[in-house]
Design brief:
five-stranded antiparallel β-sheet; four-stranded antiparallel β-sheet; alpha+beta; Hypothetical protein af1432; about 10% strand
């Protein structure tokens, strides 16, 4: 229930949903919040901006305020369907945000293909929602973002990298404003792929040299697109151009030396590769998350080591989605971390009954008392067996073109 009102009509108790102005002119980073502090109200009134949006279903209304003729209210995620389905409230919220984010990102890529400029305020508002979700519950949104269909990968990859970068920034101790800046950079990092043919991006077989050369143009294409947008922050366009640079100077498009690669670009590089490795694509299986981290740690000269170690801390020793083996002999998929002990996450139990049958058991919290079980290793064999049982992926080789598509991976790696 959004209404466009004059900023001068704002009062404490209203749920603020953004100004109608360039986002750089905003006195707040947050796009949506309950106005509860006199200082925030004063800053809004002194901003010099004439109109703003409020949500009257979440705060006070103003008598007589209504949508102006022809005005279009900013889109907000509809959580009713997920909640009605019986999901837990936090998960329902994460699922609703995922769907909302996918649609906003799809619209952004389609606009880019048609030559339209980025709707920066809409992107900032989405990043704010993602940031609030990640900072409130680091596992919730990331767990639902792991589930990507091939036809939505391009859009949800941008959302996933945004969420991962924000989580990494939190681990690094960056300010909330810096986390959101890094998140906006991560969200926009792959917009250049809007200008690459989908048949090349999703080609099941190995790319030709010419096709790979075209894909390697996406950082430059994205950069040239973003710098045409008024008020586009320089840090966001820089990350778009340089998220495939490497610390050893062998990245592209500019082969930058390590000291010339910005913090946000280094952060995005780590998160970009991790999400690409762990996602299902037409040309490869998604890797087990713990295996992806293990492989990335072996690639010398690619990532900032300090950031990679912080990223491991962000995800946990056993990231959400990892398959692990327990001392009791059962296996489980990690669904949530226990911050008090990263070696004892919460699992969804799997019963692997022979080579062709798997049943799902209950939820096991390894921190619960009495502690009767513990992780003894990653479920590499179980991961392979699950993939073999999946008819949708039965004929897809596990170790295919990953290095070619995930350019930070060395050519000798799968």
């Amino acid at each position: 229930m959004l209404k466009k009102i004059k900023v001068g009509d704002l009062v404490l108790g209203m749920y603020f949903c953004g100004f109608e102005a360039s986002w750089l002119a905003h006195p707040f980073w947050k796009a949506r919040f309950l106005l509860s502090r006199q200082g925030d109200l004063q800053r809004a009134r002194e901003s010099g901006i004439t109109y703003c949006w409020i949500d009257v279903s979440r705060g006070l209304d103003v008598a007589g305020a209504a949508l102006a003729d022809g005005a279009v209210a900013p889109a907000m995620p509809d959580q009713s369907a997920a909640t009605a389905a019986g999901a837990e409230p936090d998960r329902a919220s994460a699922v609703a945000l995922r769907e909302h984010a996918r649609e906003v990102t799809r619209q952004m890529f389609n606009a880019a293909r048609m030559g339209k400029m980025v709707e920066l305020p809409q992107c900032v508002a989405l990043v704010e929602e993602i940031a609030c979700s990640v900072l409130r519950d680091p596992n919730g949104l990331l767990s639902v973002l792991r589930l990507k269909l091939n036809d939505e990968y391009t859009y949800l990859h941008s959302v996933s990298v945004c969420a991962l970068v924000i989580g990494l920034g939190r681990t690094l101790g960056l300010s909330e404003a810096a986390c959101r800046e890094a998140g906006l950079s991560g969200y926009l990092h792959d917009v250049g792929k809007a200008f690459i043919d989908d048949e090349i991006l999703n080609k099941p077989g190995k790319l030709t040299a010419e096709e790979f050369a075209l894909i390697k143009q996406h950082p430059e294409l994205g950069y040239q697109y973003l710098i045409q947008t008024p008020d586009m922050p320089a840090y966001a366009s820089d990350v778009c151009r340089h998220h495939h640079e490497r610390l050893d100077g062998r990245g592209y498009p500019d082969a930058l030396p390590a000291e010339a690669i910005t913090l946000y670009a280094r952060m995005t590089a780590v998160c970009d590769v991790y999400d690409a490795l762990t996602s299902e694509r037409p040309y490869k299986h998604g890797w087990d998350p713990a295996e992806a981290i293990s492989q990335m740690a072996r690639w010398e000269g690619h990532f900032d080591r300090r950031l990679l170690l912080a990223f491991v801390k962000t995800l946990g020793i056993y990231p959400v989605g990892s398959l692990v083996r327990l001392e009791s002999g059962v296996s489980g998929v990690v669904i949530r971390q226990n911050p008090a002990d990263l070696t004892r996450p919460v699992l969804k139990v799997l019963h692997l009954q022979g080579p062709h049958e798997t049943t799902i058991g209950g939820v096991l919290d390894l921190m619960a008392w009495p502690r009767t079980d513990t992780i003894i290793g990653r479920g590499d064999e179980e991961w392979t067996r699950l993939r073999q049982q999946d008819p949708a992926h039965a004929h897809r080789p596990r170790d295919r073109a990953t290095a070619q598509r995930t350019s930070s991976a060395p050519a000798s790696q799968p």
